């Protein structure tokens, strides 16, 4: 078992011998959300989980555009004028959505898991 002061990141998401999973994007996502809130910018939270996952709980005011539907809905997303924050269940779908939007010229922020932005 490694001690915390000897742990070194291997990838954006990684697991240590002690089964402690760390999402490296979490801090970045929270900073972005607070920065937007501090600057008085309204944001649009796009939850990229499946509809059944979204129905079981989601951040207030978020919209559900499942990751697999995003390519067909890019025109709809491009019409969103406020800053976009993409969230998922806490895994990697928000990163895939962020990369898809970026590849299509749409600015967005990685929000991490939907519970991380809930009520913020």
**In DSSP terms, counting alpha (H) and pi (I) runs of 4 or more, how many helices?**
5
Number of E-state strands: 6
CATH fold field value: Oxidized Rhodanese, domain 1
Mean pLDDT: 76
| Main sheet makeup | 4 strands, parallel
Low-confidence stretches: 1-26
Helix/strand-derived class?
Answer: alpha/beta
Count of the domains: 1
Q: Strand-residue fraction?
A: 15-25%
CATH class: Alpha Beta
Portion in helices: 25-40%
CATH architecture: 3-Layer(aba) Sandwich
The CATH homologous superfamily corresponds to: Rhodanese-like domain
Order of helices and strands: EEHEHEHEHEH
Shape: globular
Measured on Cα atoms, how large is the radius of gyration?
Answer: 15 Å
Distance between the termini: 36 Å
**Multimeric state:** single chain
Strand order, main sheet: write it out. 4-3-5-6
What does this structure look like?
- The protein is built from five helices and six strands; from the N terminus they run ββαβαβαβαβα.
- With 120 residues, it is of the alpha/beta class.
- The protein has a single domain (24-117), classed as Oxidized Rhodanese, domain 1, CATH 3.40.250.10.
- Strands 4-3-5-6 form a four-stranded parallel β-sheet.
- Helix 2 links the parallel strand 3 and strand 4.
- It is globular, with a radius of gyration of 15 Å.
- The protein starts with 12 loop residues before the first strand and ends with a helix.
